[in-house]
Amino acid sequence: xxxxxxxxxxxxxxxxxxxxxxxxxxxxxxxxxxxxxxxxxxxxxxxxxxxxxxxxxxxxxxxxxxxxxxxxxxxxxxxxxxxxxxxxxxxxxxxxxxxxxxxxxxxxxxxxxxxxxxxxxxxxxxxxxxxxxxxxxxxxxxxxxxxxxxxxxxxxxxxxxxxxxxxxxxxxxxxxxxxxxxxxxxxxxxxxxxxxxxxxxxxxxxxxxxxxxxxxxxxxxxxxxxxxxxxxxxxxxxxxxxxxxxxxxxxxxxxxxxxxxxxxxxxx
Length: 268
Known about the structure:
nine-stranded mixed β-sheet; Immunoglobulin-like
């Protein structure tokens, strides 16, 4: 079986990304709904905020007193309670793979709906690391993080990696799809060009491998491109476009029903 090596660079992770253009409208107040449902009830929640500028994290307010409902393919439904300002949760609920879920948010006489399908879980085989020479300076070494898993040849896989270093989430969007690597053993690895942010001996690295559906993948892919444009990356001279959403009624954000596996390693 052929093993495929996929490299991801930090912070230059946008350089080869395909850009999907979306109309930009970030000046008027917009509702933003970030809904995550997973196979862990602790990680199933909905955040609702309102922002005058999607790309300015300080220009938003939380939305309270919204009504949030979930429904699965069998028609069973439940409501989510507001557990803190703008955060809605039902800890009795967790999703099952190969099921579709619908969500409805009602706020100020407006209804917002979305649907998402939870794929089959992809298991992390292992998380490892290698000490490699830095480019343009072979005398200096760097630690590369490697995530190993098997791509299922019978289904289309869309994956988001969420990575934590010493308990802190790495604020990057890591994505994989099997368009060119279907059915292979995958070695997904990345490193940081910034020496101050490089992985170091003693770091605890934790990885969630989230199996997501195509609309969720498209959202994060277009969000990544939009953030690259707004932050002065390789495409920073052009206006950022709003990421593609799966919500109705012009809401921003996403609804993701996903299942995840977990791996970790202590760098030595």
